[in-house]
Design brief:
Pfam families: Bac_transf. This is Capsular polysaccharide biosynthesis protein. With about 45 residues, the chain is mainly α. It has one domain. It is built from 2 helices and no strands. The longest helix is centred in the N-terminal third of the chain and has 17 residues. The model has no long low-confidence stretch (mean pLDDT about 90).
């Protein structure tokens, strides 16, 4: 959810970075970091 223009701009910048740098290794890194942060973060479900 993008509540402000600044958040929307940041989200678009992240999306464009992903599109320009996509690779299998990059996707695997994202998955690994997501899992790691999910186990470490106290606010994770």
């Amino acid at each position: 959810k993008t509540e402000t223009v600044n958040k929307m701009q940041g989200r678009i910048e992240h999306d464009l970075y992903y599109i320009e740098h996509w690779s299998l290794a990059f996707d695997l890194r994202i998955i690994a970091l997501t899992l790691l942060r999910g186990f470490v973060n106290k606010n994770a479900y």
